[in-house]
Task: inverse folding
Protein backbone atom coordinates (compact mmCIF):
# COMPACT_ATOMS: atom_id res chain seq x y z
CA UNK A 1 0.00 0.00 0.00
CA UNK A 2 1.03 3.61 -0.47
CA UNK A 3 1.96 5.11 2.94
CA UNK A 4 0.10 8.34 2.17
CA UNK A 5 -3.15 6.39 1.73
CA UNK A 6 -2.80 4.72 5.12
CA UNK A 7 -1.94 8.02 6.79
CA UNK A 8 -4.86 9.76 5.08
CA UNK A 9 -7.28 7.08 6.27
CA UNK A 10 -6.36 7.61 9.93
CA UNK A 11 -5.97 11.37 9.55
CA UNK A 12 -9.56 11.63 8.29
CA UNK A 13 -10.97 9.53 11.13
CA UNK A 14 -11.15 6.16 9.38
CA UNK A 15 -10.67 2.80 11.08
CA UNK A 16 -7.49 0.93 10.21
CA UNK A 17 -7.74 -2.69 9.08
CA UNK A 18 -5.24 -5.52 9.26
CA UNK A 19 -3.68 -4.80 5.86
CA UNK A 20 -3.11 -1.13 6.69
CA UNK A 21 -1.65 -1.78 10.15
CA UNK A 22 0.59 -4.54 8.78
CA UNK A 23 1.85 -2.30 5.99
CA UNK A 24 2.64 0.42 8.53
CA UNK A 25 4.63 -1.84 10.88
CA UNK A 26 6.43 -3.66 8.07
CA UNK A 27 7.32 -0.29 6.55
CA UNK A 28 8.66 1.00 9.87
CA UNK A 29 10.93 -2.03 10.33
CA UNK A 30 12.10 -2.28 6.71
CA UNK A 31 12.59 1.45 6.30
CA UNK A 32 10.21 1.68 3.34
CA UNK A 33 8.22 4.21 5.37
CA UNK A 34 10.25 7.38 5.88
CA UNK A 35 10.66 8.99 9.31
CA UNK A 36 8.36 11.80 8.17
CA UNK A 37 5.66 9.32 7.15
CA UNK A 38 6.01 7.33 10.36
CA UNK A 39 5.83 10.51 12.45
CA UNK A 40 2.75 11.64 10.53
CA UNK A 41 1.07 8.30 11.15
CA UNK A 42 1.79 8.47 14.87
CA UNK A 43 0.31 11.98 15.00
CA UNK A 44 -2.81 10.82 13.12
CA UNK A 45 -3.22 7.94 15.60
CA UNK A 46 -2.66 10.30 18.51
CA UNK A 47 -5.16 12.91 17.37
CA UNK A 48 -7.88 10.64 15.96
CA UNK A 49 -7.60 7.90 18.56
CA UNK A 50 -7.70 4.14 18.12
CA UNK A 51 -10.45 1.72 19.06
CA UNK A 52 -9.82 -1.63 20.77
CA UNK A 53 -9.63 -3.63 17.52
CA UNK A 54 -7.16 -1.20 15.92
CA UNK A 55 -5.04 -1.32 19.07
CA UNK A 56 -5.16 -5.12 19.10
CA UNK A 57 -3.99 -5.23 15.49
CA UNK A 58 -1.19 -2.76 16.22
CA UNK A 59 -0.03 -4.80 19.22
CA UNK A 60 -0.09 -8.06 17.27
CA UNK A 61 1.92 -6.65 14.37
CA UNK A 62 4.46 -5.01 16.70
CA UNK A 63 4.78 -8.25 18.69
CA UNK A 64 5.46 -10.29 15.56
CA UNK A 65 7.79 -7.72 13.97
CA UNK A 66 10.71 -9.66 15.47
CA UNK A 67 11.55 -12.86 17.31
CA UNK A 68 9.67 -14.30 20.29
CA UNK A 69 11.48 -15.94 23.18
CA UNK A 70 10.73 -19.66 23.22
CA UNK A 71 10.09 -20.76 26.81
CA UNK A 72 8.21 -23.95 25.94
CA UNK A 73 11.05 -26.28 26.90
CA UNK A 74 11.37 -24.81 30.40
CA UNK A 75 9.18 -26.46 33.04
CA UNK A 76 7.12 -24.29 35.35
CA UNK A 77 4.95 -21.22 35.04
CA UNK A 78 6.56 -18.28 33.25
CA UNK A 79 5.55 -14.94 34.76
CA UNK A 80 6.56 -11.30 34.77
CA UNK A 81 5.65 -7.91 36.18
CA UNK A 82 5.71 -4.54 34.47
CA UNK A 83 5.69 -1.13 36.13
CA UNK A 84 4.86 2.08 34.32
CA UNK A 85 7.70 3.72 36.26
CA UNK A 86 8.11 5.78 39.38
CA UNK A 87 10.53 7.49 41.75
CA UNK A 88 12.66 5.01 43.67
CA UNK A 89 10.98 2.09 41.88
CA UNK A 90 13.57 -0.60 42.54
CA UNK A 91 10.90 -3.29 42.84
CA UNK A 92 12.07 -5.49 39.94
CA UNK A 93 15.51 -6.10 41.47
CA UNK A 94 13.88 -7.82 44.46
CA UNK A 95 10.73 -9.10 42.77
CA UNK A 96 12.40 -11.26 40.10
CA UNK A 97 14.55 -13.37 42.47
CA UNK A 98 11.78 -13.50 45.09
CA UNK A 99 9.27 -14.75 42.51
CA UNK A 100 11.85 -17.31 41.30
CA UNK A 101 12.33 -18.48 44.87
CA UNK A 102 8.57 -19.10 44.95
CA UNK A 103 8.84 -21.40 41.93
CA UNK A 104 7.99 -19.02 39.10
CA UNK A 105 10.20 -18.57 36.02
CA UNK A 106 10.83 -14.88 35.36
CA UNK A 107 12.26 -13.82 31.95
CA UNK A 108 12.19 -10.07 32.62
CA UNK A 109 13.11 -7.64 29.83
CA UNK A 110 13.54 -4.15 31.29
CA UNK A 111 14.51 -0.68 30.18
CA UNK A 112 16.55 2.37 31.08
CA UNK A 113 15.48 5.49 32.92
CA UNK A 114 14.47 8.67 31.15
CA UNK A 115 13.34 11.90 32.75
CA UNK A 116 12.30 11.73 36.39
CA UNK A 117 11.89 7.93 36.53
CA UNK A 118 14.82 5.58 37.01
CA UNK A 119 15.61 2.49 34.93
CA UNK A 120 16.05 -1.07 36.15
CA UNK A 121 18.98 -1.69 33.79
CA UNK A 122 20.80 1.43 35.01
CA UNK A 123 20.47 0.27 38.60
CA UNK A 124 21.77 -3.22 37.84
CA UNK A 125 24.71 -1.85 35.85
CA UNK A 126 25.95 -0.12 39.00
CA UNK A 127 26.92 -3.62 40.17
CA UNK A 128 30.48 -4.07 38.85
CA UNK A 129 30.51 -6.36 35.81
CA UNK A 130 26.75 -6.89 35.57
CA UNK A 131 25.79 -7.57 31.94
CA UNK A 132 22.31 -6.63 30.73
CA UNK A 133 23.06 -7.36 27.05
CA UNK A 134 22.09 -11.00 26.67
CA UNK A 135 21.18 -12.91 23.53
CA UNK A 136 17.99 -14.96 23.43
CA UNK A 137 19.73 -18.32 23.93
CA UNK A 138 21.49 -17.08 27.03
CA UNK A 139 18.25 -15.64 28.44
CA UNK A 140 16.60 -19.01 27.87
CA UNK A 141 19.45 -20.88 29.58
CA UNK A 142 19.47 -18.57 32.61
CA UNK A 143 15.72 -18.82 33.11
CA UNK A 144 16.07 -22.62 32.99
CA UNK A 145 19.06 -22.77 35.35
CA UNK A 146 18.53 -19.86 37.76
CA UNK A 147 14.82 -19.17 37.43
CA UNK A 148 15.11 -15.46 36.67
CA UNK A 149 16.89 -13.00 34.42
CA UNK A 150 16.72 -9.21 34.07
CA UNK A 151 18.07 -8.05 30.74
CA UNK A 152 17.59 -5.43 28.07
CA UNK A 153 15.38 -5.87 25.04
CA UNK A 154 17.42 -7.54 22.30
CA UNK A 155 17.53 -5.92 18.87
CA UNK A 156 15.60 -8.88 17.49
CA UNK A 157 12.65 -8.53 19.89
CA UNK A 158 9.85 -6.14 18.88
CA UNK A 159 12.08 -4.00 16.62
CA UNK A 160 9.05 -1.96 15.55
CA UNK A 161 8.61 -0.78 19.12
CA UNK A 162 12.23 0.34 19.43
CA UNK A 163 11.81 2.56 16.35
CA UNK A 164 8.37 3.87 17.26
CA UNK A 165 9.30 4.54 20.89
CA UNK A 166 12.05 6.96 19.86
CA UNK A 167 9.83 8.70 17.32
CA UNK A 168 6.97 9.05 19.78
CA UNK A 169 9.28 11.02 22.03
CA UNK A 170 10.41 13.24 19.13
CA UNK A 171 6.86 13.86 17.86
CA UNK A 172 5.18 14.44 21.27
CA UNK A 173 2.89 11.43 20.80
CA UNK A 174 3.93 9.55 23.94
CA UNK A 175 0.85 10.13 26.08
CA UNK A 176 -1.66 7.97 24.21
CA UNK A 177 -3.13 4.88 25.86
CA UNK A 178 -3.21 2.72 22.72
CA UNK A 179 0.38 3.53 21.78
CA UNK A 180 1.57 3.00 25.36
CA UNK A 181 -0.29 -0.31 25.67
CA UNK A 182 1.00 -1.67 22.36
CA UNK A 183 4.55 -0.64 23.25
CA UNK A 184 4.53 -2.27 26.70
CA UNK A 185 2.75 -5.47 25.71
CA UNK A 186 4.69 -6.06 22.49
CA UNK A 187 7.85 -6.41 24.60
CA UNK A 188 6.32 -8.33 27.49
CA UNK A 189 4.35 -10.86 25.43
CA UNK A 190 7.50 -11.51 23.37
CA UNK A 191 9.03 -13.02 26.53
CA UNK A 192 6.90 -16.15 26.11
CA UNK A 193 5.22 -15.70 29.49
CA UNK A 194 2.04 -17.35 30.78
CA UNK A 195 0.99 -14.48 33.04
CA UNK A 196 1.71 -10.79 33.58
CA UNK A 197 1.01 -8.49 36.51
CA UNK A 198 0.88 -4.80 35.59
CA UNK A 199 1.79 -2.17 38.19
CA UNK A 200 0.16 0.94 36.73
CA UNK A 201 1.15 4.01 38.71
CA UNK A 202 -0.57 7.37 39.13
CA UNK A 203 0.22 10.49 41.15
CA UNK A 204 2.86 13.23 41.27
CA UNK A 205 5.83 10.95 40.63
CA UNK A 206 4.14 8.84 37.95
CA UNK A 207 4.11 9.14 34.18
CA UNK A 208 0.29 9.30 34.30
CA UNK A 209 -0.64 11.59 37.15
CA UNK A 210 -4.45 11.28 37.02
CA UNK A 211 -6.04 8.12 38.43
CA UNK A 212 -8.65 8.00 35.67
CA UNK A 213 -6.00 7.95 32.93
CA UNK A 214 -4.06 5.23 34.72
CA UNK A 215 -7.21 3.14 35.17
CA UNK A 216 -8.08 3.48 31.47
CA UNK A 217 -4.59 2.31 30.47
CA UNK A 218 -4.70 -0.56 32.96
CA UNK A 219 -8.05 -1.88 31.72
CA UNK A 220 -6.94 -1.54 28.10
CA UNK A 221 -3.77 -3.57 28.72
CA UNK A 222 -5.67 -6.25 30.63
CA UNK A 223 -8.14 -6.63 27.73
CA UNK A 224 -5.36 -6.71 25.13
CA UNK A 225 -3.22 -9.17 27.07
CA UNK A 226 -6.09 -11.57 27.58
CA UNK A 227 -7.04 -11.36 23.91
CA UNK A 228 -3.46 -12.40 23.13
CA UNK A 229 -3.81 -15.49 25.33
CA UNK A 230 -1.92 -14.31 28.41
CA UNK A 231 -3.27 -14.18 31.97
CA UNK A 232 -3.10 -10.49 32.84
CA UNK A 233 -4.05 -8.49 35.92
CA UNK A 234 -3.36 -4.85 36.78
CA UNK A 235 -2.89 -3.06 40.06
CA UNK A 236 -3.21 0.71 40.30
CA UNK A 237 -0.68 2.06 42.79
CA UNK A 238 -0.04 5.55 44.10
CA UNK A 239 3.26 7.27 43.31
CA UNK A 240 2.81 10.54 45.20
CA UNK A 241 5.74 9.60 47.48
CA UNK A 242 8.99 7.85 46.50
CA UNK A 243 9.27 4.08 46.92
CA UNK A 244 11.71 3.38 49.71
CA UNK A 245 14.38 5.64 51.19
CA UNK A 246 16.92 5.50 48.34
CA UNK A 247 16.58 7.11 44.90
CA UNK A 248 19.36 6.70 42.36
CA UNK A 249 21.23 3.64 41.11
CA UNK A 250 23.91 2.21 43.42
CA UNK A 251 22.04 3.56 46.46
CA UNK A 252 18.93 1.69 45.33
CA UNK A 253 20.89 -1.53 44.79
CA UNK A 254 22.18 -1.22 48.34
CA UNK A 255 18.62 -0.79 49.60
CA UNK A 256 17.54 -3.85 47.57
CA UNK A 257 20.26 -5.93 49.20
CA UNK A 258 18.90 -4.87 52.60
CA UNK A 259 15.36 -5.82 51.52
CA UNK A 260 16.56 -9.23 50.31
CA UNK A 261 18.16 -9.72 53.73
CA UNK A 262 14.73 -8.90 55.21
CA UNK A 263 16.22 -5.75 56.74
CA UNK A 264 14.86 -3.07 54.40
CA UNK A 265 12.25 -0.35 54.85
CA UNK A 266 8.96 -1.91 55.93
CA UNK A 267 6.65 -0.16 53.47
CA UNK A 268 8.48 -1.05 50.25
CA UNK A 269 9.23 -4.57 51.51
CA UNK A 270 5.53 -5.15 52.10
CA UNK A 271 4.68 -3.63 48.71
CA UNK A 272 7.08 -5.95 46.89
CA UNK A 273 5.80 -8.98 48.78
CA UNK A 274 2.23 -8.12 47.81
CA UNK A 275 3.19 -7.80 44.13
CA UNK A 276 4.97 -11.16 44.14
CA UNK A 277 1.99 -12.69 45.93
CA UNK A 278 -0.19 -11.28 43.15
CA UNK A 279 2.04 -13.01 40.60
CA UNK A 280 1.85 -16.31 42.50
CA UNK A 281 -1.94 -16.10 42.75
CA UNK A 282 -2.27 -15.16 39.07
CA UNK A 283 -0.16 -18.19 38.15
CA UNK A 284 -2.65 -20.48 39.90
CA UNK A 285 -0.09 -21.69 42.44
CA UNK A 286 -2.03 -20.31 45.41
CA UNK A 287 -5.71 -20.41 46.34
CA UNK A 288 -5.77 -16.83 47.56
CA UNK A 289 -3.66 -13.69 47.80
CA UNK A 290 -3.34 -14.27 51.54
CA UNK A 291 -1.89 -17.77 51.18
CA UNK A 292 0.41 -16.56 48.42
CA UNK A 293 1.61 -13.71 50.64
CA UNK A 294 2.46 -16.13 53.43
CA UNK A 295 4.55 -18.18 51.00
CA UNK A 296 6.32 -15.09 49.64
CA UNK A 297 7.21 -13.72 53.04
CA UNK A 298 8.60 -17.11 54.02
CA UNK A 299 10.94 -17.15 50.99
CA UNK A 300 12.18 -13.67 51.86
CA UNK A 301 12.75 -14.53 55.52
CA UNK A 302 14.60 -17.81 54.91
CA UNK A 303 17.16 -16.29 52.51
CA UNK A 304 15.92 -18.08 49.38
CA UNK A 305 15.32 -14.82 47.50
CA UNK A 306 18.76 -13.49 48.44
CA UNK A 307 20.36 -16.67 47.10
CA UNK A 308 18.43 -16.34 43.82
CA UNK A 309 19.65 -12.77 43.48
CA UNK A 310 23.21 -13.92 44.11
CA UNK A 311 22.84 -16.58 41.40
CA UNK A 312 21.38 -14.07 38.94
CA UNK A 313 24.16 -11.53 39.55
CA UNK A 314 26.83 -14.21 39.12
CA UNK A 315 25.21 -15.63 35.98
CA UNK A 316 25.19 -12.17 34.39
CA UNK A 317 28.84 -11.47 35.17
CA UNK A 318 28.28 -9.23 38.18
CA UNK A 319 30.40 -9.13 41.32
CA UNK A 320 28.24 -10.98 43.86
CA UNK A 321 30.60 -9.81 46.62
CA UNK A 322 28.51 -6.60 46.77
CA UNK A 323 25.80 -8.59 48.57
CA UNK A 324 28.13 -9.04 51.53
CA UNK A 325 30.06 -5.81 51.05
CA UNK A 326 27.85 -3.04 49.55
CA UNK A 327 30.80 -0.64 49.84
CA UNK A 328 32.04 -2.22 46.59
CA UNK A 329 29.26 -0.38 44.78
CA UNK A 330 30.10 3.00 43.17
CA UNK A 331 30.49 5.82 45.71
CA UNK A 332 30.21 9.59 45.27
CA UNK A 333 33.03 11.84 46.42
CA UNK A 334 30.61 13.84 48.56
CA UNK A 335 27.71 12.83 50.83
CA UNK A 336 25.81 15.78 52.26
CA UNK A 337 23.53 15.17 55.24
CA UNK A 338 20.35 17.23 55.49
CA UNK A 339 19.42 17.50 59.17
CA UNK A 340 16.12 18.24 60.86
CA UNK A 341 16.93 21.49 62.66
CA UNK A 342 13.76 22.39 64.59
CA UNK A 343 13.66 22.27 68.36
CA UNK A 344 10.65 19.92 68.65
CA UNK A 345 9.97 16.51 67.09
CA UNK A 346 7.72 16.43 64.01
CA UNK A 347 5.92 13.78 61.95
CA UNK A 348 6.59 13.42 58.23
CA UNK A 349 3.19 13.57 56.53
CA UNK A 350 4.18 13.90 52.86
CA UNK A 351 7.20 13.72 50.53
CA UNK A 352 6.83 15.11 47.01
CA UNK A 353 8.14 12.37 44.72
CA UNK A 354 8.53 14.62 41.67
CA UNK A 355 10.53 17.25 43.59
CA UNK A 356 12.84 14.56 44.98
CA UNK A 357 13.29 13.06 41.52
CA UNK A 358 14.38 16.42 40.09
CA UNK A 359 17.13 16.69 42.71
CA UNK A 360 18.31 13.16 41.98
CA UNK A 361 18.33 13.91 38.26
CA UNK A 362 20.65 16.86 38.86
CA UNK A 363 23.10 14.76 40.88
CA UNK A 364 23.71 12.87 37.63
CA UNK A 365 21.77 9.74 38.57
CA UNK A 366 19.28 10.13 35.72
CA UNK A 367 19.11 11.32 32.14
CA UNK A 368 16.98 13.92 30.40
CA UNK A 369 17.83 12.60 26.94
CA UNK A 370 18.32 9.00 25.85
CA UNK A 371 21.98 9.60 24.95
CA UNK A 372 22.94 11.17 28.32
CA UNK A 373 25.45 9.34 30.51
CA UNK A 374 24.55 8.75 34.14
CA UNK A 375 26.52 8.78 37.39
CA UNK A 376 25.79 5.43 39.06
CA UNK A 377 26.82 6.82 42.46
CA UNK A 378 24.60 9.91 42.53
CA UNK A 379 21.26 10.13 44.29
CA UNK A 380 19.62 10.29 47.69
CA UNK A 381 19.65 7.78 50.55
CA UNK A 382 18.20 7.74 54.03
CA UNK A 383 15.22 9.81 52.90
CA UNK A 384 12.58 10.49 55.53
CA UNK A 385 9.24 8.84 54.68
CA UNK A 386 5.63 9.56 55.64
CA UNK A 387 5.00 8.21 59.11
CA UNK A 388 8.52 8.94 60.41
CA UNK A 389 8.93 10.93 63.60
CA UNK A 390 11.91 13.26 63.21
CA UNK A 391 13.87 14.24 66.28
CA UNK A 392 16.03 17.40 66.44
CA UNK A 393 19.36 16.78 64.72
CA UNK A 394 18.14 13.64 62.93
CA UNK A 395 19.13 13.02 59.29
CA UNK A 396 16.30 13.77 56.85
CA UNK A 397 18.29 12.63 53.81
CA UNK A 398 21.79 12.12 52.44
CA UNK A 399 22.59 13.62 49.04
CA UNK A 400 25.27 11.70 47.11
CA UNK A 401 26.99 14.03 44.64
CA UNK A 402 30.17 15.40 43.07
CA UNK A 403 29.11 19.05 42.80
CA UNK A 404 29.47 21.18 45.96
CA UNK A 405 28.19 24.28 44.20
CA UNK A 406 24.61 23.00 44.10
CA UNK A 407 24.29 21.54 47.60
CA UNK A 408 22.61 24.59 49.18
CA UNK A 409 19.95 24.67 46.46
CA UNK A 410 19.35 20.91 46.70
CA UNK A 411 19.01 21.09 50.47
CA UNK A 412 16.46 23.90 50.29
CA UNK A 413 14.42 22.06 47.69
CA UNK A 414 14.55 18.83 49.67
CA UNK A 415 13.31 20.57 52.81
CA UNK A 416 10.44 22.06 50.79
CA UNK A 417 9.56 18.61 49.43
CA UNK A 418 9.11 17.14 52.91
CA UNK A 419 5.96 18.26 54.75
CA UNK A 420 5.93 18.02 58.53
CA UNK A 421 3.25 18.19 61.22
CA UNK A 422 2.87 17.77 64.94
CA UNK A 423 0.06 15.31 64.19
CA UNK A 424 0.75 11.68 63.28
CA UNK A 425 -0.53 10.97 59.73
CA UNK A 426 -2.92 8.21 58.70
CA UNK A 427 -1.08 6.38 55.92
CA UNK A 428 -2.93 5.03 52.89
CA UNK A 429 -2.11 1.77 51.16
CA UNK A 430 -0.29 2.37 47.87
CA UNK A 431 -2.45 -0.25 46.16
CA UNK A 432 -5.71 1.52 45.34
CA UNK A 433 -7.36 -0.88 42.87
CA UNK A 434 -6.90 -4.41 41.56
CA UNK A 435 -8.20 -5.29 38.10
CA UNK A 436 -8.32 -9.03 37.60
Result:
Amino acid sequence: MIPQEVIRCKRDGGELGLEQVRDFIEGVVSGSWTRAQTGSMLMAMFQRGMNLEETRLLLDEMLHSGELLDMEGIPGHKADKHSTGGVGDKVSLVLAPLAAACGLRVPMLSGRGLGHTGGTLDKLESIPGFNVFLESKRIHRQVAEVGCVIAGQTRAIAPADRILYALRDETATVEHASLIAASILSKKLAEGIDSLLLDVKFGRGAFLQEFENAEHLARLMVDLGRAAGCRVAAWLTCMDQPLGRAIGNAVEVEECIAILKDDGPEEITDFICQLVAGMVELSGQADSLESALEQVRGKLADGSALEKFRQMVTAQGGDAAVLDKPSLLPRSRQVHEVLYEEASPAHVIDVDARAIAEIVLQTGAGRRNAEDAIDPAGGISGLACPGDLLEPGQVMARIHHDDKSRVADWEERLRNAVRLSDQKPVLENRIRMRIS
